[in-house]
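User: Hey, my collaborator sent me this sequence without any context and asked if I could get a structure. I don't really work with proteins. Can you help?
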Amino acid sequence: MKQYRSVLSSSLVVLVCLFLCASCIVFPIPALAVSTIYVPDNHSTINVDTDDTPFLVTLQYLTINPRQAYINEPVTITANVVNLSAYPNNYKVVLIINNEIEQERMVSVGPRATQLVKFTVTRSIPGSYTVNLGSQRGSFNVIDTETNARAPLDDATIILIVMGILIIAAAIVLVLSFRPAKN
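Assistant: No problem. I've predicted the 3D structure and written it out in structure-token form, which is a compact way to encode the shape of the chain:
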């Protein structure tokens, strides 16, 4: 009885496969219109179905400037919204910092075009901040101006330091030149 069931199930599988193959011959599957698109920013090409895919938008080239900022100093976050389809698209870009939504922008991008999106943020607490923009990831640090920053030297201070070094060097030369010679 077990052998009979095994042969029956194998035969059923074969019949289903034959039916599917025959239906493909009678009702052929239409070919998709595939285009090769050159992406100039990363010098590569991709194949996409541009006729049937009205929405093919990606985010590329996340930049964060500066990577290290002082408290309340603006940090600029940019990326390119790239539309690879043959249709214009609107794309909602969501900026997430430390797993919380910070800002959102709706960006309109023409067919096979790129649009820059720019966010500016500030932080009042020192620390490390993780940035997520679509599939792009990055980070920036905020430092305390009082504990980590030094005041720049002004011209007068630099001149005084150089003069002090020259006076010390002259004193050493004088001491060495008037020292009695050992015989």
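In plain terms: The beta strands are 35-39, 44-48, 57-65, 68-70, 75-83, 89-97, 100-109, 114-121, 127-133, 136-143. You can pass these tokens on to your collaborator as they are.
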